[in-house]
From TrEMBL:
SUPFAM superfamilies: N-terminal nucleophile aminohydrolases (Ntn hydrolases) (SSF56235)
Protein's UniProt keywords contain Transferase: yes
Source species of the chain: Agromyces neolithicus
Signal peptide (residue range): 1-34
InterPro entries on file: GGT_bact (IPR051792), GGT_lsub (IPR043138), GGT_peptidase (IPR000101), GGT_ssub_C (IPR043137), Ntn_hydrolases_N (IPR029055)
Enzyme Commission code: 2.3.2.2, 3.4.19.13
Superkingdom of origin organism: Bacteria
Record protein name field: Glutathione hydrolase proenzyme
């Protein structure tokens, strides 16, 4: 089931409300943390009752918790938290991007999803990333920082749809804390400073971005206060006038203008290719409501995001493959070997079959079927790693399936952010949102305080008609985002998600395996060292994973690439007694924040 919502169904707001949006009159306050104010508490894990929020950021989690404390539900808190992440994590998320929102309604027992993915403009053709001068694809790095890579943003439309369908609060109320936060500012931490420094050269190429994120020509200093008055003004306008302010009228014109004609510094060497977005593309943007993916794993119901994300089908297929083994009874290296093999096979299938279902026939039911996964498990050798890449399985796979495969280049990036929320009624949200690469396209809408995404680089550039993920006008690029809700007997048990490009899929799978099969608590499952096998010759792994397991996994034939940090999980568990554990990262990305309304004594 897919139904479309017109983003213009904004719940009535009158211009007179402008007065109450003056910063001093904000009812739901942001935690004070700018210079001279105490920073909000930032435990990575909290346990208790009454509602829980987990995200990568202390300010954002605190804002979401405040909404829950005041009686808002999970959808309300998720929108408020996401808006705050757009302020404090502007390189990962914000109104210039898109994402996927998964909602569990405890009263009906239903899981619903909102696909707020960015879309290709209506005038963008399949050869858009091919250089007409050479007939070859543009270099990936050059395509990233360009108008060409900017998809029509879906984030604001997602917030509006989530509140309309599931929430109890207005968008105006849920934006207020972020308006205040952008005005007062937040403390620059090591992660924000390092992300700015890593992007300094390309940010400097775009004057509007340099002005905002490189004050005095350099990244803001750790410990300084970063304010974004332009973003505060933009959010205030949207709060007062509704999302039409963004999707129609002056702001839409400004977005289309900068995409079509990126404004670069005369000294910049970036090609900054122009894009195709028009004001009509923004006016026509629609989110999609669709059924979640669902599989059963060890008696639990695992719900995820259906295509256009490959998250739900690929996490689902990986777990279905692992269902063939009694992992709890295995030694950890043996379980990890099976995990690496399961995800490699699932990635072969996602690369072959998953794209935007509005344009390609995606065999979602087959990819999620236990029979299909069993045919994959059948060729996995419990004692030896398969030669990568493995081939996709034919869709009528039965028995054992083996074949040769060609190599797929993985160009997805590692930005993005995820938040998890459970409220006092047991409703839950898993929401992953992104502007794609850290810093997105590098292009800020001048004077508006937010970056535009580079999501269209998630398409494959070569227009091979057999590839489900080539550019087409109006199409959504395939995603790996995997917001996941696990139910136990109809009640929410786990809410999980992560950033990390294509490693999102393996991270969510690994955290669930750690928790469900390997005897870890949720905080342990989140903190445990990670590895990611996405059907490539080398396994990506963290240094701690290599230290712990490389010597035991190498004899299987697994080969490891250079160590790198993987993911930044924000998760929640609710046990059978209703005790909630909000678990964010203790260390990765500078540590996240998990909060509960009523801490357990
Ligand atoms: N663009 C990626 C996706 O949709 C996410 C980017 C990331 O996590 O860094 O899958």
């Amino acid at each position: 089931m897919v139904h479309v919502t017109h983003r213009s169904a904004f719940r009535g707001l009158s211009l007179a409300l402008g007065a109450v949006l003056a910063v001093g009159a904000v009812a739901v306050g942001a935690p004070a943390s700018a210079a001279g104010r105490p920073a909000p508490p930032a435990p990575s894990t909290s346990t208790g009752f009454g509602g829980a929020v987990s995200s990568v950021d202390a300010e954002a989690s605190a804002i979401g918790l405040e909404v829950l404390r005041k009686g808002g539900n999970a959808a309300d808190a998720a929108v408020a938290t996401a808006a705050a992440l757009g302020v404090t994590e502007p390189y990962s998320a914000g109104i210039g991007g898109g994402g996927y929102f998964v909602y569990f309604d405890a009263a009906t027992g239903e899981v619903t999803t909102i696909d707020g993915r960015e879309t290709a403009p209506a005038e963008m053709q399949s050869d858009a990333f091919i250089d007409p001068a050479t007939g070859l694809p543009y270099p990936f790095a050059a395509a990233v920082s360009s108008g060409l890579s900017v998809g029509v943003p879906g984030t604001l439309a997602t917030w509006e749809a989530a509140l309309d369908e599931f929430g109890t609060e207005s968008l105006k109320e849920m934006l207020k804390p972020s308006i205040l936060l952008a005005t007062r500012g937040f403390r620059v931490d090591e992660t924000f400073a390092a992300q700015t420094a890593a992007n300094q050269a390309r940010f400097a190429a775009f004057p509007a971005t340099a002005e905002l994120f490189l004050p005095n020509g350099a990244p803001p200093e750790v410990g300084s206060t970063f304010t974004n008055p332009d973003l505060a003004t933009t959010l205030r306008e949207i709060a007062v006038h509704g999302t039409d302010r963004f999707y129609e009228g002056a702001l839409a014109d400004e977005i289309a203008a900068i995409v079509q004609d990126p404004e670069t510094d005369p000294a910049a060497t970036l090609p900054a290719f122009p894009g195709f977005m028009t004001p009509d593309d923004l006016a026509d943007y629609e989110v999609l409501f669709q059924d979640p993916t669902r599989i059963e794993y060890r008696g639990l119901d695992v719900y995820g995001m259906a295509p256009s994300s490959s998250g739900g089908t690929t996490v689902g297929e990986s777990l279905n493959i692992l269902e063939n083994y009694d992992l709890a009874a295995e030694e950890v290296p043996q379980a990890l070997h099976l995990y690496l093999e399961a995800t490699a096979h699932a990635f072969a299938d996602r690369n072959a079959y998953v794209g935007d279902p509005a344009f390609v026939d995606v065999p979602t039911a087959t990819l999620l079927s236990q029979d299909f996964a069993d045919a994959r498990a059948c060729v996995i050798d419990p004692d030896a790693a398969s030669v990568k890449p493995v081939a996709p399985a034919p869709l009528d796979a039965a028995g054992c399936v083996t074949a040769a495969a060609e190599v797929d280049v993985d160009t997805e990036n590692i930005s993005t952010t995820h938040l998890s929320v459970v409220d006092q009624w047991g409703n839950a949200v898993a929401y992953t949102l992104t502007i794609e690469q850290t810093g997105g396209s590098g292009m800020t809408v001048p004077g508006r305080g937010f970056l535009l995404n580079n999501e269209l680089t998630d398409f494959n550039f070569v227009p091979n008609p057999a590839d489900p993920n080539i550019v087409e006008p109006g199409k959504r690029p395939r995603s790996s985002m995997s917001p996941t809700i696990v139910l136990d007997g109809g009640d929410v048990r786990f809410v999980v998600g992560s950033p990390g490009g294509s490693t999102i899929i393996t991270t969510v799978t690994q955290v669930l395996m750690n928790r469900i099969d390997l005897g870890m608590t949720l905080p342990e499952a989140v903190a445990a060292p990670r590895a990611s096998q996405r059907n490539t010759a080398n396994v990506s792994a963290e240094q701690a994973f290599l230290d712990a397991y490389a010597s035991e996994l190498t004899p299987y034939g697994h080969r490891f690439g250079n160590p790198a940090e993987i993911g930044a999980v924000a998760a929640i568990e609710v046990d059978a007694d209703g005790l909630m554990t909000a678990a964010a990262e203790p260390v990765r990305r500078g540590g996240g924040t998990g909060l509960v309304v009523q801490p357990a004594p």
